[in-house]
Amino acid sequence: MTKKKPQVIERDNVVIKFVGDSGDGMQFSGSLFSDSAAIAGNDLATFPDFPAEIRAPQNTIAGVSGFQMHMGSSKIFTTGDMVDVLVAMNPASLRANLKWVKKGATIILDQDAFDDKSIEKAGYKQNPLLDDSLAPYQIVKAPITTLTKDSLATLGIDNKTAERSKNMFSLGILYYIFNRDLKAPFKYFEEKFKKKKELVEINKVVLQAGYNYAETIEVVESVIQVAPAKMEKGRYRNITGNVATAWGLLAASEKSGRPLFLGSYPITPATEIMMELSKHKSLGAKVFQAEDEIAGICSAIGASYTGAMACTTTSGPGLSLKSEAIGLAVITELPLIIVDVQRGGPSTGLPTKSEQSDLYQALFGRNGECPVIVIAASSSENCFNYAYMAAKLSMEHMTPTILLTDGYLGFGSALFKIPKMKDMPPINPPLAEANDKNFKPYRRDPETLVRKWAIPGTEGLRHRIGGLEKEDVTGIVSTDPMNHQVMTENRNNKVQKVADYIPLQDIDGDKTGDLLVVSWGGTYGAVHSAVKVMQEAGKKVSHAHFHYIMPLPKNTAEVLNGFKKIVVCELNSGQFVNYLRMTHPTPNYHQFNKVQGLPFMINELTEKFNQLLEEK
Amino acid sequence: MDDFINMTVERSNVQLTKADFESDQMVKWCPGCGAHAILSAVERVFPKIGYRKENFCMVSGIGCSSRFPYYVNTYGIHGIHGRAAAIGSGVKIANPKLSTWIATGDGDSLAIGGNHFIHIIRRNVDVNIILFNNQIYGLTKGQYSPTTPMGKVTKTSPQGTIEHPFNIGELVMGAQGTFFARVPDNNISMMTEAMFEAAKHDGTSIMEILQNCIIFADKAHFDVIGKDVKDETMLVLKNGEPMVFGKNHEKGLILKDQLLEVVEVGKNGITIDDILVHDQYNPDPGIHTMLAKLAPPNFPMVFGVIRSAMFPTYDDMVEEQISQAKATSKIRNVDDLLNSGDTWEIK
Question: Can you give the pTM of this predicted structure?
């Protein structure tokens, strides 16, 4: 029998989503396929989408867990708006995700999972495989559970274990559709399950069976080819934002020579940073899992006083609990890196969904006049650089620094060009020297207004600091009115002067035009992509994406002044736009906001931009 | 008093004196406040402990007690309300070479800071906590605290408190404390002895000092530590010696039916050999807990070092794990880390 060779279709980029019950191994399938894509030379971005509950009831919408990946032969900026290929393991996951699937997309389904009970639990009135509701899609349906069990029959595997491997069967089909080699996943199984040889065999057999099935029964008309991306030369790896944040902190600790101390408390979606750092004791990192958020930051302040590069990681509710202690770090003028992986709020809010709604809290959420440096990362991989910069600025300027990332950046992954430590910028903490006759706790460098960091144990520098207002220079407790004015101004000016040490704001596109699109933090990918669409359509639209928020880059006014209209896009109700209205008043601000726990879609952005361009 | 002392902290190569630790700041506690005596005890004991003066670090929270760091010439950080134990944990873990001391009060450590208090004890971080127990909020002018006796009239309990107070010793034992001492503020030598023992002890040391607030809870402890009653109401423990009290040490404690009982030596056939002998190093906290809970009128209150048991400290174990990881891990620097696991070259 001669096999019909399927037609090969070239695609620039493809969005694939794996969905199923939270125990179906969707994260595992997704990561495996992402690794293979990366090894094949594609650029990519991924995002796991899981419920707040660990194992919500089976076969229900609430229990649907997903993993989305966007791979391409050119630079990938987002995890993708609409899905080209959906792998759905049960009716609930199909129903929950269909609204994100493009018409004409390929959907891989396990028809064994469409029994009456599961169909009903998913909220379907009738079996969607039997009516025409899936007509707009290319459906690849196979009795995946049965075929998985059959493929393992000769190995004598029990039914339960066999059933758990069905995600590998659907993944095998996907490997065939994308014409991907099975060598990479096989190698991965061998390493991952080194101590459980049986699992290596099971995974290999089922993955191969899925691949062979797709090839043999010709389930698809065509295979999809996504050519390797043209990427800058160098060594790469795939990295999540939270791991990149942890590594950026480790890098800053090594560069500065200040040992890393992390005092933290588990909180979604920030916990992975603490988990990652706790693995790296060989680099001297001390990780203290505190009894609460407050103890996390307070232990870090104690560590900072003794000369450590001290950090605390959290999300919005935790940042609220840390507010008072941030004030202590501000008045004692100690370095402290506070990472806020933002999530939907207020209160417990949407723990696993992303939002940019902690900006006000980061800027203003403390008693008294309490300025800190605020910076924001904009992609999973640049969490490394911004964590590094947060630590550098905090230590060199003796000021707490809040780094804002968010759940999408933290959980999401992207390809990361591995830097060399020798190329990272130097970090020079202003350490006081032993027996310095001139040392006073609040004597400042006249240029930067930075005080010296006097490490306990050093001879001749014994001193006391604390939360009570201190006399300028001497550090003696003082309630003198004019002194308080001076110290308040010092603390504020010290932070403002950081503007001399951060990069100028750049503009993507012309420096003048009809519309400047402004964004900050984790929305970079979507906003950048939307601006590109506008620019390619010949519109006079440019983009300024801010990473440095407090202080703002020195040329911010210049950047904003070149455009007829400015639209600030953020995943909150307008916090950055109001901050700009306050610091750089012009009548030209418009805003585009979304508070749904979801990222921006490119078409909703372009629609807004077009509408603004048309309005007089 | 100069037996083995922790060697993690560098010793001074010159003999230090009280003057080395006196700060130039005006001490602003009320005249007659018990805190003055505590300060004096600390200034006396620090030179005896013998560490370099740069290696002492004082940490505090908020309250009258917590002004302490400003009055001792060491490194020091005055924190925020209730958080001294958390700040002190960070100090000690990040820099185990510092002899870390926390000055705190009953409101600071047992109310707003209760969570940090039990957890630093549970972890056995090697810090010394001087807990000024004056049974009142002084700095906010006279509200009841977690140690105020039930029924006491204060600014926020005009009809008397309706709260069951903490017994600090019992709380410490409940949190698996390894060191607990109780001393009165009117006996400087007993205070310095307990502080020295605390410095010697590896792990979290809690020293409860019955401190007098002359303004808002004057003589709160006088029923126990007052000169005219103390012979009958105070039992001062000495390790390895029988637990006796009374004007002529004629009274003592025995264990009967699993309970402590006061007996008189020479009466009902009781001899000194029947009296319980104090073993502060006993790892089992059973007797220590019973001792900590005793109080008049039926019993004396127990003073001195009640418990000083050897258990691994958190900070030592942190260092151990780090040296283990350094000895075995292939990742020796951040370049190693960045290039670990799956990576690939794009040419």
Answer: 0.95
